[in-house]
């Protein structure tokens, strides 16, 4: 067994960018050190209120339209009472009588929805930038798909009230086959060669505190079944990629909680599956290649024609059978259209965006070159095929939803052009473009994501639920892009109004501007490395 894992609680090197991105030298912790930059200290001062939930004082949001996340029609002129981090009352404002001393916030003309849930991230970067960005963008819960010591440290600080951030579910390091798509230049992955190694890894990552086991593309069938069986024995979920050599229905039957991305769906819904599987079995990765970038290039170059062959053989009846089986077994699919869109339709990537200012300028400036390195050199015919593959992914999203398969929203944040928290709003818009309604998309980022994560306390606005809420200035059911029009956020019962939110975002922006560029030679891999067909 070979492994690369990060050092305990080390804030030093990050893994942002595309497949090979510049590493980030993380800023000082929010708790403050002698080396903390002014921007980091400013965020720390604002975040010092992160634990200030006054158990003796209730907060009532009055005259607000509640879109509660389950798909029910909006409820107008409602009052939502929050106390000790929990929703303690939800009723029409006309019938609500508040006891003396309750602080009220008049939200006439506003819309209240559950805090958004980001189901697929690879978070890394300065403490003063990345964790606060999630809740300030309305994302109050995150599922981390490649766990590292820094994520556990962030979670401890958030729970203790010394760091502003989301609820964090943290996976294991990526568990892949041998040779892995990840080379030695990347930490936080583990390669297993056989069933015995696979079982040992499951026991180890559970002991280390992982909330789930993250499986990956190059696992052998033997190792995958061993992981699934041991995970069941250890009562820890396994989820992630559907390995190249495992059928998606087999993964569902093995209890895989979610399938990440849409690669496996192309194959499983094709009449050419048997032929394509023979091609996948022949894909080889050079075990002596020290670069994860070149390994990914090699893999994509071999896999792309197989995906095109699968799309050309799309079989609607076979797809319907597969989707019904996923729905019946409760296996979710996280489409991550955001990363597919960026890497498959690079001509539609914007030159600039307002939220990029919350990341270091040197990082943002590196994105175009990284994108060109991954997508440049395509022939017109290859570009046409890749556009058709993306359009087919959109079709699969529509049909998965129609078949009753849960589609939690996730972005693969950690890849280029994805700003923590803000990227989820782009994903919601892409899901609407794929054919879902705004109400269905809101459910994907609230109730459906909460079910996937096994979090009963979040995902809907209801009495007894955790007070993780998002207040909007405009109706998201009229236009899903209105989820970006944030008036305020409730994070674990703490109300961050528009004024405080702008101040905190300004402090994050300053901290990002002060973050130093990576040390020479500190390049690394980030995200799942999905979607970038050369």
Task: Report what the structure shows.
This protein has 534 residues and is an alpha/beta fold. The chain is built from 17 helices and 19 strands. The protein has helices at residues 38-47, 130-136, 149-160, 195-207, 221-234, 248-253, 263-268, 273-281, 292-312, 316-329, 337-344, 361-375, 380-402, 422-433, 438-444, 447-453, 498-514; strands at residues 2-4, 20-21, 59-66, 75-83, 86-92, 103-106, 111-114, 116-121, 139-144, 167-176, 189-191, 212-215, 238-240, 258-260, 332-334, 469-472, 486-491, 494-496, 524-525. Strands 3, 4, 5, 6, 7, 16, 17 and 18 form an eight-stranded mixed sheet that branches. Strands 1, 8, 9, 10, 11, 12 and 13 form a seven-stranded mixed sheet that branches. Helix 11 (337-344) runs antiparallel to helix 13. It is globular.
Q: End-to-end span in angstroms?
A: 30 Å
Secondary structure class reads alpha/beta
Percent helix range:
25-40%
Q: How big a fraction of the residues is strand? A: 15-25%
Radius of gyration: 22 Å
H/I helix tally: 17
Average pLDDT score? 87
Biggest sheet descriptor: 8 strands, mixed
Runs in which pLDDT lies below 50 for 5 or more consecutive residues are 5-35, 521-525
Give a count of the beta strands, DSSP E runs of length 2 or more.
Answer: 19
General shape: globular
